[in-house]
Amino acid sequence: MNGTEGTRWNTILFAVVAGYIAALHVGKLPPAMPIVRAELGLSLVVGGWLVSAFAVTGLALGMVAGSVADTIGHRRLTLIGLGALAVGSFAGSLAETGPSLLASRLVEGLGFLAVAVAVAAPSMVAHAAHAGDRALALGVWSTNVPAGVALMIVVSPLLLGGSGWRGLWQVTALVTVIWLVVLAMGTRRDVDKVHHRARDASLARNVRLTVSTFGTWLLALCFGLFTFQWLAVMVWLPTFLIEERGTGSAAAAVMTAVVVAVNVPGNLIAGWLLHRRFPRWLLMAGAAAAMGFAAVGIFDPGLSDGTRYALCLAFSAFGGMPPTALRAAVPSFAPTAAQMGTTNGLLVQGTNLGNVAGPPALAAVVTAAGNWESAVGLMTAAAVAMTILSLGVGAIKHRQRKAAGEYRR
Q1: 3-class DSSP state for residue 118?
Q2: Backbone φ, ψ for residue 407 (5° rounding)
Q3: With contact defined as beta carbons under 8 Å apart, do 354 and 226 qualify?
């Protein structure tokens, strides 16, 4: 957007709520999984694919979706994404077999990719925000997944008890349709000015320009290393609490939900720090180092359970900072404003590479060694690699400022 224009906070609010609603579709499955598997007779393997459908979709189609957003407009793709989420969720509520439910989850995955995983709606936020407010706005946006998932984990038992998993799917679809209408009406006067220039650019050109920019690869790899660590801990924390520490299943679910939820303050603090012109690379490197140190303590059997749980909270809180910093970096690292969505799409692919690889890698290491302490090496290696790449991001930004004649910030 033009630097002389003010921040369109109403547009940002519409996009942020769309992200929260998209995250509900992620959070609805884990609490319902035992009921879904029992009713449809699903194996653990099929259940695993239901969980992985969103990550696989993002990994395969991130840049494609981003380039589509750059071509047809971020607002338009956000609306299409909400529609796909609603259609997929309603179709899933009618599923009678595992394959049909998986097909509906893939449709939802396409919608989630369009809306929530840093492709269409985050680009709406970036274009709607004045440059001075962009980091703060993206910090608020970044709360969507942890907050939406945590909210659904808390609310879904009430709906599951009253109307079953099919009712939960239908209610989620209805809420999504309502917000689709609200967003369409509330942002109908918004014009994605940059996209009038972008419509002449082909998907191949957008992708070529994005992948030929070294800085975009650093951002994507940083995001992948972050999700590799964070999701691995979040996925296996309930198992660790139940099998290793003897925690009850209900208590483990609540404790895990709290750990996921404290990711939100990290998002907001990072946005505030970036708004106050705190160096982006230092925020990323510091958060990566803090996550590494916390992981060492989490898997240290010599520490008390209270201390280890506090370190889980710290791990997740510091883990809220990298997503905000990385998304805020996209406008600076995209080849041009017309490739902002495509660059976001590359970050999506990095994110989902970490999502797909992290949990099984942690499981493989722990299984091979026969103890949870062995996870320390894997987690610290990822943290060190992310710290080094963050320094690379800082070096590129320094060169950009030097070339532009900037000596402060």
Answers
A1: coil
A2: -130, 5
A3: yes
Which amino acid type is present at position 189?
Answer: R
Query: Rounded to whole angstroms, how far apart are CA atoms 225 and 351?
Result: 8
Furthest-apart CA pair in the chain: how many Å? 64
Return the closest-CA partner of residue 137 out of 282, 337, 323, 328.
328
Three-class SS of 217-280: HHHHHHHHHHHHHHHHHHHHHHHHHHHHCCCCHHHHHHHHHHHHHCHHHHHHHHHHHHHCCCCH
Of the candidates 167, 168, 166, 142, which has an alpha carbon nearest to the alpha carbon of residue 155? Answer: 168
List the CATH number of the domain containing 256.
Answer: 1.20.1250.20
Number of domains in the chain: 1
For 77, other C-beta atoms within 10 Å of its C-beta total 26
| 164: in domain | yes
Q: Are 319 and 114 in contact (CB under 8 A)?
A: no
Q: What is the pLDDT of residue 406?
A: 58
Helix (H, G, I), strand (E, B) or coil at 58: helix
Q: Do the domain assignments include residue 408?
A: no
The answer to whether residue 4 sits within a structural domain is: no
Name residue, tokens 């925000």.
129
Domain span at 101: 9-403
Rounded Cα–Cα distance for residues 27 and 101 (Å): 16
Alpha-carbon torsion, ordered 42, 352, 275, 391, to 10 deg? 140
Q: Does pTM top 0.70 for this prediction? A: yes
Burial class (CB in 10 A: 0-12, 13-18, 19+), 6: exposed
Task: Give the model's pLDDT for residue 176.
Answer: 97
Phi, psi of 155 (to 5 degrees): -80, -35
Within 73-143, residue ranges assigned H as helices are: 74-93, 98-115, 120-128, 134-141
CA angle, residues 22, 161, 37, in degrees to nearest 5: 70
Residues of the chain with confidence (pLDDT) below 70: 1-5, 44, 116-123, 190-201, 249, 404-409
CB 312 within 8 A of CB 321: no
C-alpha to C-alpha distance for 228 and 226, rounded to whole angstroms = 5
Q: For 212, list phi and psi in degrees, rounded to 5.
A: -85, 0
pLDDT value at position 181? Answer: 96
Task: Determine the pLDDT at residue 149.
Answer: 83
